[in-house]
Design a protein that fits this description.
The protein has 52 residues and is an all-alpha fold. The chain is built from 2 helices and no strands. The radius of gyration is 19 Å and the shape is elongated. The N and C termini lie far apart (39 Å).
């Protein structure tokens, strides 16, 4: 496994995660739908040709 040099803030976050101070929060259905639509729109070609 590759080791990375973390700065002070990154180490603080990593230690909090590994120490169990963070917990998984499940997204709401509305959030999932919202971000799924954004993802679909990202890959959909614009009818005016703006996306290539």
């Amino acid at each position: 496994m590759k080791k990375y040099q973390l700065d002070k803030e990154e180490n603080k976050i990593l230690n909090a995660i590994e120490g169990g101070k963070w917990e998984l929060v499940k997204p709401k259905k509305a959030e999932l739908s919202h971000y799924a639509q954004i993802a679909r729109n990202t890959f959909r070609k614009d009818k005016k040709g703006k996306n290539g």
